[in-house]
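Journal club prep, notes for RB
We'll compare a predicted complex against what the paper describes. Inputs for the iron/sulfur cluster case:
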Amino acid sequence: MALIKSLHARASELANSKAQVDFLSSGMFEKGGAQTFKEILDEHDQFPLKPGKLKIFQVNLGYMCNQTCKHCHVDAGPDRKEIMVKETMLQCIEVLKSNEIETLDLTGGAPEMNPNFKWFVETASQYVKEIIVRSNLTIIESNDTYRQLPEFFAKHKVRLISSLPFYNADKTDRQRGKGVFEKSIKALIKLNAVGYGKPETGLIIDLVYNPTGAFLPASQHSLRKEFKQVLKEEFDICFNQLFCITNLPISRFLDYLIETENYEDYMYKLIEAFNPMALEGVMCKNTISIDWTGQLFDCDFNQMLNITLDYNAPQSIGDFNIHKLNNRIIAVNQHCFGCTAGAGSSCQGSLL
Ligand code: SF4
Ligand code: SF4
């Protein structure tokens, strides 16, 4: 009980990334004996963790978003002012021009809210095989500025990855805000109308499920079947894959775990479910994450926690060097257990 009280006392102090890292590293577990991620890597002869070939260049275009979801690890919302400027985008284009990187993955906030979003997609499409946009769907319905996005996405053959926490309004709205389910359905219907989710067009829209509480996601395979069936029967909507993502104990979700007195149990669940096979596919092995200022990180989660790259690696987009990045050591901490629990988790869903 004393521990829970101290967790509550600390919840309000975790607003900044350093406080979150200190908290995650402090091992505040009543049961004792919890392993650190480094120890478990060592046990499996995987420490230090090293990257493979760089395939995905994940750019965060800013933290502004039209939504304020409960579990957002970015702490995004309409009042966030951090936005990537065109000069930094040009530096990203230079990197894509001179290196063979297959995929540009655009995230945020709502990446579409960056005023140079369309220009960036049009320009970058000359240099990569695939562009992913992590669209929250409701942006399409938010105002006239964004209503033509489905046509724009289709024209540039953008692959969409979009969160839909569940196939009903109750669970979706509880996590993402009132009215989000209805707007998401309207957006999906418009995306289907321009060809998304239809095998003959090659236009891909994948949906993302993440649990609404302090538990691990169910099997991706069975949930996909359920989502496909209900969305088709009730709304005549089709989509490609369903990705199941584990919530990592960061930002608003960490705060939620502490507030609901679930932090300790959730961390134990992640640690006990550690799966060495998932380690092979963790996204930091083939991805580099770039924040709105152009700083480089091992992944989006490390970006949010401000866990910087190995000091021997280039730190910003202006110093990009693929050989040095391929030789870096990946910076890990306790939140990494979220990527290796059960079937594993990444921005592209389960790893196994
Ligand atoms: S989870 Fe996505 S849609 Fe929700 S607030 Fe965060 S960035 Fe916006
Ligand atoms: S949180 Fe980031 S650094 Fe840690 S295992 Fe996952 S992808 Fe890698």
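Talking point for the session: DSSP finds 16 helices and eight strands in the chain.
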